[in-house]
Amino acid sequence: MACQLYCLAGMIELSHLKAVVLNGAAFYVTIKRRRSPETKLSWFRLNKVKTMNRFKIILQDKSFLKKTMAITAPIALQNMLNNILNLIDTLMIGQMGETTVAAVGLANKVFFVFSLLLFGICSGSGVLASQFWGKRELLNIRRVLRMTLYIGVGGSLLFVIPGIFFPEFVMSIFTPEEGTIAIGAVYLAVIAISYPLTAVSLSYSSILRSMNYVRLPVVITSIAIAINITLNYALIFGHFGFPEMGVAGAALATVIARIVEFSLLLLIIHLHKAGDDGLGDFIHLKYHKKEENNVPFIHKSFVEKFLITASPVIANEFMWGLGVTMYSLVYGRMGVEATAAITITSNVEQVAMVFFFGICSAAAVILGNELGADELEKAEEYAKNFILLQFCLSVIGGIITLIIKDPIISIFEISDLVASYISNCLIIFACVMPIRMLNALLIVSIFRSGGDTKIALFLDVTGVWLIGIPMAVLGGLVLHLPVYVVYGLILIEEIYKIILGYFRYRQKKWVKNIVSSL
Fold first, then answer.
1. Maximal CA-CA distance, the chain
2. SS (HEC) of 313-344
3. Minimal CA–CA distance to 175: which of 82, 103, 116?
4. Which end of the chain has the smaller Cβ count within 10 Å, N or C?
C-alpha cells in the first residue's frame, strides 16, 4: 500500500505519506463500522441467492439427479438392510441381558476394524475403477479387482487367526469384565470364519458400484439378510427344531448368511454373457499377454499407481478404525451400562446415516467417472451439488432423529439409566449430524475421487488420534464423566475436520484425472 501511494504521490515526503496512510486507515475503519450491519446483511443475501441458484441448477439437471438417485437409493437400501439386521440382532441378543449386549458389541469391534480395512481397500480401488470406467478401460478394472482380492483376503487372515484361536485374549483387550470376555469369546470364535467371505463379496460389490451396477449387490444382500434374521431367531432361541445356541447361534447364522451371499454373488456375476457392453464383457474378458507386448497382467507401473492411490486410503481407514476402537476401550472401562448404551446408540446411528452414506457412495462413483472422462468442470459443479444436498438433507435427518429417538429406545429391554444415556447420546448425535455428514462427503467422496487421498488420511487420523482419543481418555478415565458427555467430547473432532477440509476443498487439488497416464 505504501509503495503504491509513493508512486502516485511522486515527491510526497515520508512524513506526509505517513499522515495520508493513517488518515486513510481511520477513514476506512469509520466507514466499515458505519456500514457493517448493511455489509453483513448483503453477505447473507448474497449467500441466500447463491444457495437458491444452486438448488435451481440441481433441479434443472435431470441427468445429475437421475444418476445420483440411481446409485444412492440401492446403496442406501443395502446399508439400511444391513443396519436393520444389526438392530434386530441387538434386540434378540438384548433379551439375554445387558452383559450379553455389551459382550457381542465389543466382539464385533474386531469386525468393525476389519470392515474399515476392507472399506479402505475397496474405496482406494473404487477411485481407480470409477475413473477407468469413465474411460471404459475394462482390462484395467480387472487389474483393480485382482489387486483388491489379493489385499482384502490376505488382510482378513490377520483377523481370522486371532479371532478363532485366541478369542479370550482379543476380548480382554476391550474389557476387564470376565463375564463379558467369556460371552464375547464364544461369539468371536465363530463369526471370524466369515471374514474372508466378506472380503471377496465386498471386493466384487465395490467394483460393481464403480461400474454403476448397484442393484445386484442389493438383491443378494437382501436374500442373505432374510436368511440371517430367520436363522438368528432359530439358533439363538432354539426354534423350528434347531438347538438353542445363544450368542454362538447368532454368530453361526451370520456365517451361513455370508456363505449364501458369497456364492450367489459370484454365480450371478458369471452368468452374465459377453457382448453386453458392460458386466458380461468385463467378467469374461481374457488377457492375451502376447498382444500386450508380453507385459504381465499385474505389471509394475499399475501396482505403483494402485499403491499410490489406494495405500493412503487403506492406511486412513485402518488407522481411523483403530482409533475408533480405542473409544471402545474407554467405554468398556466405564461399566456395562455405558458399553450397552454406546452399542445401541451406534446401531441407531448407522440406521440414521444410511441414506447419507448412500449419497457419499454415489458422489464417489459419479465424480470419479467424470474425472476419468476428463470432464473436470462438470465434476466440480457436481461436487457443489452434492455438498448442498448432503447438508440440507442431513439437517432434516437430525430433526427426524430427535423426534423418533424415544420410540426407538423404548423397543429395547434396558434399564432406565441406560435409556437416559442413549437419549442424551442421540441428542448430541442429531446436533452434530450435518457437520459429520459433510466431513464424510468431503473425505470419502470428493477428495478420494480425484486421488487427493493424503489429505483425507491426514484429516481422519489427526482428528481421531490428536483430538478424539485424548478427549475420550480425559472425559472417561480421568474425569469419570457420564458416557454421553464423553461421546460429545469425542465429536469435537468433527469441527476440526470440517474447518480444514473446507479449506482443502477450495484449493481444488482433487479436481484431476489420475488414470490418464495408464
1. 103
2. HHHHHHHHHHHHHHHHHHHHCCCHHHHHHHHH
3. 103
4. N
| Gyration radius of the chain's alpha carbons | 26
Q: Is the dihedral of CA 67, 72, 77, 79 positive or negative?
A: positive
62-94 and 336-372 are packed helices; what angle lies between their axes, rounded to 10 degrees?
Answer: 160
Q: Spell out the residues 6+ positions from residue 109 whose beta carbon is closer than 8 angstroms to its own.
A: 174, 325, 328
Cβ neighbours for 1, distance < 8 A, ≥ 6 positions apart: 21
Task: Count CB atoms within 10 A of the CB of residue 403.
Answer: 10
In the DSSP assignment, the letter for residue 516 is T
C-alpha cell at position 28: 476506512
C-alpha dist (Å) from residue 54 to 308, 443, 454: 35, 22, 29
Determine the Cα–Cα distance for residues 206 and 317; give it in Å rounded to an integer. 15
Give the model confidence (pLDDT) of 135-184 as tens digits.
888 888 899 999 999 999 999 999 999 999 999 999 998 888 888 899 98
3 state SS for 281-306: HHHCCCCCCHHHCCCCCCCHHHHHHH
Distance CA 108, CA 195 (A): 12
Q: Per this entry, what is the length of the chain? A: 518
Contact call for residues 340 and 414 (beta carbons, < 8 A): yes
Determine the distance from the C-alpha atom of residue 55 to the mean position of all C-alpha atoms in its chain, rounded to a whole number: 25
* pLDDT, tens only, 430-464: 999 999 999 999 998 999 888 888 898 899 999 99
